[in-house]
Design a protein that fits this description.
Strand order of the largest sheet: 5-4-3-2-1-6-17
Bound molecules: flavin-adenine dinucleotide
Number of strands: 22
CATH architecture of the largest domain: 3-Layer(bba) Sandwich
């Protein structure tokens, strides 16, 4: 159990000098907490303000655009409710401007918070001189070498590149370029059916692009439970021009009118072996930024997957250096990075802590959203672990029907012996908000009966969590189960 954080700055933290390299959600969360604990903090990042990938070219701009995509989709669905809107006119430069403003507002806010906490913010890139010294090349010219007692590496990750799909063409995009929204292409090939590809594909599809997704595995969102992916797959089949599973892109070539893609795989027929696209988005995963200059002058260890190795206190093999976030491993998610950042700082401050969460939520912000935490059914099967699964279909939820979104499901994964909730999975509108209750249930070691006995407000989608626990006991109000025998 971690110690509470209400300890005042002590002598130890007052005299400590800490550098945090990288100001993403891991780095700035760490720097801010360290300052709150009385540590002298220097935060280093090439951008003008903290934010990292998450705010500048990840979570935040993508969610701003997905919000717009949802609005467009809903305005079309409104036909079913007797309200018809004309086809939306899209002012791309205004849309881009709005998204950029969202980023500016949030990163500017972080800059303010940084100043208020008296964090020394250096806009530049850091390289190691030794385990305690960093040479910082400032963005506005000049170099400085600074010495610290402890250093936290929070250098994040970047889009992975498949050498065979490297093509020097302005039509090629990674996630950063796709978020720039230079134009609305007529057609787009998304290589990779993971969450980034599906989220960005959904944005372009809503804006009017004909989107094709190609995934080499047999299903979208590899790793997620199949029953959670199914409703999303069905909806995406309507939104996208094509979803090619068990398929790889053998080659990409610029052919004057676009990029000609050659496909290979079981489901590829003679007539769809090749196709030309206006643009191609490659979203095949992310690579940790562990090639920090001078790292070899320290004792930090990097593993075969290029992640920096850390223990449960996020300390590397070098006692003066800690590492957090995407650069230390999966899941590469902002909230995991922030939590690790806080644990690392507490460890540095001498508190008794460890990073050992029972549940890290994952959310795919498509429409419907897919979210899960704790144990998944897929994982339980792999581990041959005995579980019981209780599912509540959203067709039986009053709230889901009022918003015309019965295409959802909430499920609990329960330990049959102890009846403890081990995992929660949700697919449906707003699943990303609902999953937080699952995380709390798992962290608090809730039993299915705790969830079932907690009064949830009506009519809300949150009731589906309570009712899935009732399903576990065979007593769900809105799901009739005939008695056996
Ligand atoms: C399109 C997209 C959508 C995403 N959506 C979500 C989402 O909805 N939810 C979610 O949880 N996650 C999402 N992510 C993932 C999320 O952005 C990352 O998990 C998160 O940003 C990782 O945080 P971090 O602090 O480890 O590093 P990062 O955010 O990657 O920040 C690292 C920072 O370190 C800087 N840096 C690197 N090397 C140096 C150096 N030598 N010196 C100084 N600075 C350096 C980098 O420039 C960068 O600013 C998304 C990612 C992408 C690309």
């Amino acid at each position: 159990m971690n110690e509470p954080l209400n300890q005042p700055p002590n002598e130890r933290t007052n005299n400590l000098r800490l550098a945090v390299v990288g100001a993403g959600p891991g780095g700035y969360a760490a720097a801010f907490l360290a300052a709150d604990l009385g540590i002298q903090v220097t935060l280093i990042d090439p951008e003008a303000n903290p934010g990292g990938v998450c705010l500048y070219r990840g979570c935040i701009p993508s969610k701003a655009l997905l919000h717009v995509a949802k609005l467009i989709e809903e305005s079309q669905q409104a036909k079913n409710w007797g309200i018809e809107f004309p086809v939306p006119k899209i002012d791309l430069s205004r849309l881009r401007g709005w998204k950029e403003n969202v980023v500016k507002k949030l990163t500017g806010g972080l800059g303010q918070l940084s100043k208020q906490r008296k964090v020394e913010y250096i806009q530049g890139r850091a390289a190691f001189e030794n385990s305690n010294s960093l040479r910082i090349t400032k963005v506005d010219a000049g170099e400085t070498t600074l010495t610290f007692d402890r250093i936290i590496l929070a250098t994040g990750s970047r889009p992975a590149i498949i050498p065979a799909l490297k093509l020097d063409s302005p039509r090629m995009m990674d996630s950063t370029e796709a978020l720039n929204l230079e134009d609305i292409p007529g057609s787009l090939l998304v290589v990779g059916g993971g969450y980034i590809g599906l989220e960005l594909g959904s944005v372009y599809a809503a804006l009017g692009t004909r989107v094709t997704v190609v995934e080499m595995l047999p299903g979208l969102l590899p790793g997620a439970d199949r029953d959670l992916v199914l409703p999303l797959h069905k909806r995406l089949e309507k939104m996208f021009e094509g979803i090619l599973l068990n398929t790889t892109v053998a080659s990409l070539k610029e052919d004057g009118t676009g990029i000609r893609a050659k496909f290979e795989g079981q489901s590829v027929q003679e007539n769809n072996r090749e196709k030309t696209f206006d643009r191609v988005l490659v979203s095949v995963g992310r690579k940790p930024n562990s090639e920090i200059p001078g790292l070899e002058k320290t004792q930090v260890q990097v593993n075969s997957r290029h992640f920096i190795e850390v223990n449960k206190q996020l300390q590397t093999a070098d006692p003066a250096i800690y590492a957090i976030g995407d650069v230390v491993g999966e899941p590469m998610l902002a909230h995991k990075a922030s939590h690790e950042g806080r644990v690392a700082v507490e460890a540095i401050a001498g508190h008794k802590v460890a990073f050992e969460p029972n549940a890290i939520p994952a959310v795919v912000f498509t429409d419907p959203e897919v979210a899960w935490c704790g144990l998944t059914e897929t994982q339980a099967e792999k581990e041959k672990r005995e579980i019981r699964v209780a599912k509540f279909p959203w067709g039986a939820s009053g709230r889901a029907v009022t918003i015309d979104r019965p295409d959802g499901m909430t499920k609990l994964i329960v330990d049959p012996q102890t009846e403890r909730v081990l995992g929660v999975g949700i697919v449906g509108a707003g699943a990303g908000e609902l999953i937080a209750e699952g995380v709390l249930a798992i962290e608090m070691a809730a039993l299915a009966s705790d969830v079932a006995m907690t009064i949830h407000p009506h009519p809300t989608l949150s009731e589906t969590v309570m009712e899935s626990a009732e399903v576990f006991f065979g007593t769900s109000t809105h799901v009739f189960r005939p008695k056996r025998g």
